Amino acid sequence: MDLVPALQEPLEQPLKSVLGPATAKVMAEHLGLHTVGDLLHHYPRRYEERGQLTHLADLPMDEHVTVVAQVADARLHTFASAKAPRGKGQRLEVTITDGSGRLQLVFFGHGVHKPHKELLPGTRAMFAGKVSVFNRRLQLAHPAYELLRGDSEEAVDTWAGALIPIYPATAKLESWKIGKAIQTVLPSAQEAVDPLPDPLREGRALVSLPEALLKIHRPHTKADIADARDRLKWDEAFVLQVALARRRHADAQLPAVPRKPKPDGLLTAFDDRLPFTLTEGQQRVSGEIFDDLATEHPMHRLLQGEVGSGKTLVALRAMLATVDAGGQAAMLAPTEVLAQQHHRSVVEMMGELAEGGMLGGAEQATKVVLLTGSMGAAARRQALLDLVTGEAGIVIGTHALIEDKVQFHDLGLVVVDEQHRFGVEQRDALRGKGKQPPHLLVMTATPIPRTVAMTVFGDLETSVLDQLPAGRSPIASHVVPAADKPHFLTRAWERVREEVGNGHQAYVVCPRIGDEDEDTKAAKKKTPEDEAEKRPPLAVLDVADQLAKGPLQGLKVEVLHGRMQPDDKDAVMRRFAAGETDVLVATTVIEVGVNVPNATVMVIMDADRFGVSQLHQLRGRVGRGSAAGLCLLVTEMPEASPARQRLNSVAATLDGFELSRIDLEQRREGDVLGQAQSGTRSSLRMLAVIDDEEIIAEAREEAARVVAADPDLEHLPALRTALDALLDEEREQYLEKG
Fold first, then answer.
1. Angle value at C-alpha 714, between 712 and 717, nearest 5 degrees
2. Which residue pairs from 220-225 have beta carbons closer than 8 angstroms and sit at least 24 positions apart in sequence?
3. Strands (E), 319-366
4. What is the C-alpha separation between 40 and 323, in angstroms, rounded?
5. Which of 223, 408, 481, 489 gives 20 to 30 Å between its CA and that of 545?
6. Number of other residues whose CB lies within 10 A of the CB of residue 248
7. How does pLDDT run across 598-635, given as a tens digit for each residue?
8. Cβ atoms 477, 612 nearer than 8 A
């Protein structure tokens, strides 16, 4: 019997037992750090060199900054105010400099005494606070500061080495306080268990994990930082790729029914009906999918295609092949509008082949049913019956497909449209509907750079459709600076009238709906950004009203947004598709899959409020027919702002892969991965998905090798520990259900 209780792993110690409850609480609430290990993995964002001061010349507005600078002068002013009517109010103004620029610090009231004594001209210190503007000059009001005294013992220890680490900080906890906390726990780094197998580490000449942690937090030279970063990047890439490799390995062990199309079945009949030939890309990707469908293990494939590259056609051919082989295929769409749209276009493409009496019957036809949450009871009962008897070979629906009541005769293939809108749980629930796991094809129109695909969808094989089918027209995109050049906006509405005059139609997209419900919610949740923007984003209902009474008077204008009743939405879309409506003012409900070839122009209001890939998606709704498309990005942002640069890059290229790179470089990776990983905090702190493409690719190969040799990692206990830490509950489920 074990008389001595097992000591807690040093890195698993809660921070409150090491740093005290107050600091630990701030770290948990504001930085998500709970244990000694979490804190050791909170890496410096950058390093200040003793001799080299931060550039005050390029400080960002409204951000929390840490600067190292020297006091140039300090003046105490007295003034009269409501609180101090006899001229007893005090204001301390301190000017600091770093050679590149000057910055004013201001302290008021009782807060002036300490800085007045300490911040004497010539003093060097670190200052932290939020940059604001007062009298057209940049300033920090009441910044926190830490003097840099070169001589005193404590300071020499605290700022050991010539490089001062600057940590990602918050207003509640400055960088140097985080630095001091890390100094306290740094000795525990010696106990860090190294997840990398020795042969891999030695083969790549990487330093050990304890050494990397010491060097990242207390570097003596820039070479120390480089060594540490190389090593820590490998950790993140490798552990994540091992998780994905194990997932692929487990999937490869599952049984599935091979689905091979009959020589003269439904697929052949469908191909014979097509009025055009498939592009090379469509033929290649179809080949990859058919090879997967013919195996005895479930296919897991990601189909990436540019907006309008014909993904739906490729997916439909896979569904028909499955029906040929005696199975059923289900297509899962993220919204009702989209499910109805897919159902309409599939039935149109198939013609009489969609009017089957029996699955795989002699007339080669099958039934294509729609299943959504808002269907009437009778239609729904009939659809469910068609599925359970096998009468319907193809079903298209929203997550209504996943409900317990829905039963299939023999589900062989699941196609998921627009991956990033689907919870992994839903994919999993649908997979459970087959007698054996069905094959899975995931489609996305958001081009994903190869590295992100390897990182986020690393459990899926990837196929890419990058050619546009013949007959697609180019889309011209322009930025319309409404504030600088109002006449450009006037011209935009004239262009819309011209297009409508030529028999075409237009979309106008706004960020908000603008009904009461939404506005009251928005009023409660004011963020500093909203305050800075001063006006809420433009809303569909307001804009539609202004356009109908103003620049687009006389045209038939309708609205479409997510809070309308499903029947109303469908009616609006039908009228627009039929050409009865001239201009559709909508939210991003039209972002995905809406197909109206006669719509040639799109005006996106407050375009700066949308992400790069979202703008690209929206733009793909025009230019779908033989007439050229036009996309106008309206913004009030000034010329030099990052938002304007982002819009300029969207206007400059139609290449979605190029744009997704730009998008990634501008947002931090964490957002991209975090969004894709069901909202969890990205585990990548050091790895940059775009820049570290080589490391990710190599880590994927190494991981595949390790898992093939030892799937349960029995001989690599340290790697298993690291894996458990990465796959905490939520992430474990995420990968499980992938």
1. 110
2. 220/161, 220/162, 220/163, 221/163, 222/163, 225/47, 225/163
3. 328-332
4. 54
5. 481
6. 17
7. 888 999 998 888 888 788 878 888 877 778 889 999 99
8. no
